[in-house]
Amino acid sequence: MSGRVLVTGASGFIGPHVVAGLRAKGYSVRVAQRRESPVDEGIERVVIGDLSGPVEWRPAVTGVRHVVHLAGLAHAGSGLDESLYRRINTEATLALAEAAQGAGAGRFVYVSSIKALTGAFDGTFSESDPPAPGDAYGRSKLAAEQGLAALGLDWISLRPVLVYGPGVKANMASLLKLARLPIPLPLGGLDAPRSLLAIENLVDAILFALTSACPARRSYTVADPEAVSVAEMIAAMRSGLGRKPGLLPVPAALLKQAARLAGREQAFAKLCGGLIARPEGLIRAGWRPPAATLPALAQLAAAADAA
Predict the structure, then answer these.
(1) DSSP bridge partners of 6
(2) How many domains are contained in the chain?
(3) According to the model, what pLDDT value does residue 76 have?
């Protein structure tokens, strides 16, 4: 593969993995930065400023074959103003897409979120379900997808579920920290399966979305094919550390009550809820994710322990 790909959000958790994946496939990479910062040799950069204000996108999109848009305002709970989500996640996305279309770019791959489909923490969801985002973040992501659909651009929106991999933060980082503790954990009763996404699989899905094999002008769920429970996650991580699972079968209801009393009910629901969303469309199109969930979690823990 060849050609230049513009990547926004290249400095976040997902971005460096995407840049490395693109370069491994033979693409040249241009990254859009809010402020000038170092990049690896062979990578172009263009400074665009903050996405909350007006951005002159033409220097970034001139001469690019494709765009991978990762940048945005992350899901930060209910404390932020909805207009800020809309400015960054919706309006800036559409301004970039319009500039890319005007510059003659090919594919525009927008990394959205499963939150554009549902705000629930439990349940099984299909790509054919009517979107029902539950918060400002999800609504801003869905609005961007709807705006892309109104353009004449060759766009694809990817809706990843909870992503894990080297450098992961927030709830998955907390779970990894728990798995590394040298004590038994009362998490054996957390057996509700939920969808996860290995960073290797997300990168592979993005690369697949840049090819003609992936039908454009639609949204796709991105997830590992198999759903796993928190208990299975911990056991896999500990296997990567060369240890037994060490899980005590405390009922999930008791743990949920403890989380509620500690003011951590939403964090508990985010990590332990049984949200299942399968990558139906990508699989039908021919995508085959390279990483299996449990071995990938084991590798994550082993790498974190060796760091």
Answers:
(1) 30, 67
(2) 2
(3) 61
